[in-house]
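Q&A log
Question type: sequence-to-structure
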Amino acid sequence: MFDSIYTASVTANQFFLMAAAAILSGVVYGYLMSFRVKAQPRFFVVCGLIPFIVGTVITFVSGSIGAGVAFGGAFALIRFRSAQGSADEMAAVFIAMAAGVPFGMGYVGYGVILLLSMGVLFLLLSSLPVFDHKALREEKLLRVTIPESMEYADAFRELFTKYLKSYDPCGVKTVGMGSMFRLSYRVKMKDPAQEKAFIDEIRTRNGNLEIALLPYAEPGNEL
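Response status: OK
Response body:
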């Protein structure tokens, strides 16, 4: 079970055995990851196929430096033409790619065990509360849009002192063709029940322009 199924030359039966094991275990792996990773259904289809794809590449480029370099360049082009995913999505893809290596070398048993055990381990670690710190849940990202004529350095200091335990400026960005500014702050509310009152008071000062109060940890929310 743990010996390579490949001989000096790969036969059709050996290749199709590897393909069946990689695809079946990949589909089960994609199903497991769908319980934790927030993505489109096609992402899990791709995760299920990656072990077979990587295994196929390794099978046929083994010992050929030129073919290996060519495939490496092709993978690089695909990577740089793809949008950056979340940490969960990247972990899912890396696990699937890592499992494709033993499949491509003929170690089908190791590939199946690695793929499925890592999927189960990901689920278990994701469900543990040890990484869910209360202090991190309290942090919010406050984004306030103001007109360009407004001096923003101390415009909300009084409100922040009244409603917030702490606040830290994260940056300033021009929006609306430079006609407005978007201010970003990392904040902690004194009382989460006062969020609406806090936002209402900001609205009276920024001319009722856009205001957002978001979980700080979400990717892409910094500005």
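Response note: The helical segments are 12-33, 41-61, 65-80, 87-104, 108-127, 134-138, 157-163, 195-205.
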